[in-house]
Amino acid sequence: MDSLTLVLFILGFVLLVGGANLLVEGASRLAGLLGVSPLIIGLTVVAFGTSAPELAVSVQSSLQGQTDLAIGNVVGSNILNILLVLGVAALITPISVHERLVKLEVPIMIAVSVLLLVLSFDGIISRWDGLLLFSGILLYILFTIKTQHKVEVSETEQDSNSGVASIILQLLFIIIGLGLLVLGSQWLVNGAVAIAELFGVSQLVIGLTIVSIGTSLPELATVVVASLKKQEDLVVGNVVGSNIFNILLVLGATSLVAPNGIVVSEAAIEFDMLIMIAVAFLCLPIFFNGKIQRWEGGLFLGLYVAYTTYLLL
User: Fold this and answer.
1) d(CA 109, CA 281)
2) Which whole number is the average pLDDT over 122-149?
3) SS3 36
4) Which element (helix H / strand E) includes 262?
5) Which CATH class is domain 3-312?
6) What is the distance, to the nearest Å, from the Cα of residue 15 to the centroid of all Cα atoms in its chain?
7) Structural domain boundaries of the chain?
8) How confident is the model at residue 296 (pLDDT cuts 50, 70, 90)?
9) Angle between helix 52-63 and 160-198 (nearest 10)
């Protein structure tokens, strides 16, 4: 491993933290300027942005004929988002859960997870299936915007000229933050792979751990920063929204561009997707009380360790 790889590894971590800070600050301020709750921004803008790595990896792998990577990337990321990302966030500080998530978003996440399983029964997610999934994300975005509740906007924010300029500025912060997150996660993963290879870690272990976590680093960094800044609606909204986007947008778009659709292995249908659905259902009782406690975050992390250990063994 050369010195440049080590430097990029360290810079990747710096960019990841810096990008997450910009994203969270821009998202929370944009919510105030537009008069919408941070939860809605987390469910849409932030969720879409942090799902970008999954989209890039899945589309690229499908065009190269490695469609099994696309399905594994999405299913693995959805499991990781809840068990690892929310687990870490809840250990930092107990997280309040908006009532809307329990009534609407979590049931939607469960429904699209079950839909993915049903569409996979024939062993392939065809272009028609992809069109159905992609149409679903468009309907979800429209539904989310239509059902959001307006919040108070200050008189300063209502000034038309300064308001438009401020909105553009916060959008710029969000875009820059997302760019830094993606670049930082790439450098961090590449450095981690090089370090792992230096210590003789196998490609299989690297793929199941470092690479799978790598595409979820933007969610993890964003959630950790949002937790520290007490932006709790952004925390859970980003995770649940990202899981919905991963299935509907990422797999929908990927199956549309894949020449022969996305091939789904029996192992994914009989095990991984069932775990993903079970984890989605687990959110209901834990979210129901309106707060994710530290011990529940520990439970999530424990389940993630057990799942990863099973995969490695």
Assistant:
1) 9
2) 89
3) coil
4) strand 262-263
5) mainly alpha
6) 18
7) 3-312
8) very high
9) 60
